[in-house]
Amino acid sequence: MNATATLFEFQAYPYEVAGTDSVDGNILRLTEETLAALDAMNATRPILEIGRETIRPLNLVGVMKVGGITLEILPKLFKGEAYQRHRTVIAGNLLTMLACTERLSIREVDLAGLDLEQTDLFEVFIFLFAKRLARLLKSTQRREYTRQDEELRFVRGRIDIRAYTNPARLHIIPCTFHEYSVDNPLNRTLKYTCHLMARTSRRTETVRILRSITDLLDAVTLTPVTVAEVDTITFTRLNRAFEPFIRVCRIFLANATLTLQASDVETFSLLIPMERLFEEFVAAVIAEDPAFFFGQEMEVAAQQRNGHLVKRMGGGHAFALIPDIVARGPAGETMVIDTKYKILKEAETAYGVSQADMYQIFAYVVKLPAQAGMLLYPDTELKAPLDYVYDVSGRKVPLLVRSVRLSHPLATREGREAFREELAGVVQALYNTRTDRTGERHSGLVLDHRSANNEIPDLADL
Question: Known PANTHER family for this protein (predicted)?
């Protein structure tokens, strides 16, 4: 029986080497083979910090299946030790954030009725994928023209003259033609992935849905599909609905060591950088209803390219500027928000706001140009707002440092609305700076980019 351990990002957990993979309270018991597999996965990209006695997840959240154990890695959305008591809320919030950002083929409505207390994320991911894919395939099965090279007794398409050279086989005609068929790379990818998932899922309902999908795709060849083959699939307006499902298939096939002959999954991972997820989630929530956050007269762009930072001496541009949120008013006023998934600490100077973050928002403010900027962090130890003012060639530009809680139960309608209300209140502080063109109302340090050597003062000196 596969064991499941719930870990939280940046939290160290003790482990021991054992004969079988298991979980004993807060202690992980891992085999030498499992530790070697974790090391191999770490070599591709840092996931875990593995010491002599402890394992510490980094900033990737999601699920890993290695040997006889499944590791759920969840974000720490609550302060102090409270996150340990709220595993169900945190798992629901992670799934909701993934649904909003469309990183996975799930929707918020699919989360209703799921028992997140009893079901691990590995099973949840597969169940939600299968449920939505089955619904889509019942309404449409993608047919495509695929190239076929066959030897026939009649001419179909065009004759391959280069292969038609044997006088003793002139009655066999090598032909190249295109056939409108469901047996295409897209459907083969779906069928192969569902076949593998059905053999590793332990949830009866999930296995039933996955097998119903392979039955729907009965005319499609069941054959191994590589990641390279998945990457050849192109999407148009006709098959765009399948893109998120193929994205999940690619993740599964790239991170799973399961074949048609193997009896079980040896390794699998579906991990998402939490900083990217936070950025995309906030942008998606605001972009869904920009008038709610900025008012009817403001136009809002989420994560769109806004030119480049520099020009090359030989021509061309470099370092694209892609702020998370840009709001523009009817009179040309511009405000910019950049989200950062970092833990601010009360004990550190300026709560530990990094120089790199300040420089980045400064570049946006100067290049857009903007009348106000905001650095937005997840809820931390930020007990009071931090307000600064950039001096940009005599123009006072307010810079606000704010945070927003991710601990609302986002899987519920009430929780999502509470998050929206809090985020709107945070954004309103930025919106109000439109009437303050001099920056005089904002107490705090003035950062003057015209200082000696044209350098921004070092934040360590604040």
Answer: PROTEIN MCRC (PTHR38733), TYPE IV METHYL-DIRECTED RESTRICTION ENZYME ECOKMCRBC (PTHR38733:SF1)
* Closest residue by Cα to residue 377 from 61, 77, 58: 77
Give the H or E element holding residue 92. Answer: helix 87-101
50 contacts 28 by C-beta, under 8 angstroms: no
> Residue 369 in contact with residue 333, Cβ under 8 Å?
no
Rounded to 5°, the CA angle 438-389-404 comes to: 115
Strand pairing class (386-392; 395-404):
antiparallel
Taking residue 131's Cβ as centre, other Cβ atoms within 10 Å add up to 17
Handedness of CA 57, 61, 67, 70 (dihedral sign): positive
* CA pair distance 232, 185, nearest whole angstrom: 8
The stretches of 227-325 forming alpha helices (DSSP H) are: 227-230, 243-255, 274-288, 290-294
What is this structure's pTM? 0.74
Distance between CA atoms of residues 113 and 280, nearest Å:
26
What are the tens digits of pLDDT across the range 179-235? 777 888 999 999 999 998 898 888 899 999 999 999 999 989 999 999 999 999 988
User: Exposed (0-12), middle (13-18) or buried (19+): which is 227, by Cβ within 10 Å?
Assistant: middle
Taking residues 433-459, report their average pLDDT.
Answer: 44
Structure tokens, 215? 């039955």
